[in-house]
Amino acid sequence: MFKLPEFNFTKASFLSEETIQYHYGKHHNAYIEKLNNLMEGLPPKDILEIIRDSDGALYNNAAQSWNHTFYWMGLTPSPSSLNLNSLLEKSIKEQFGSESGLKEKFVESALKVFGSGWTWLALDMQGKKIEIINTSNADVIDFKKYMPLLICDIWEHAYYIDYRNSRSNYLAEFWTAINWKFVEDNFENKDQAKVGKLLMT
Ligand SMILES: [Fe+2]
Question: Which residues lie below 8 Å from residue 127, measured CB to CB, with a gap of 6+?
Answer without folding.
Answer: none
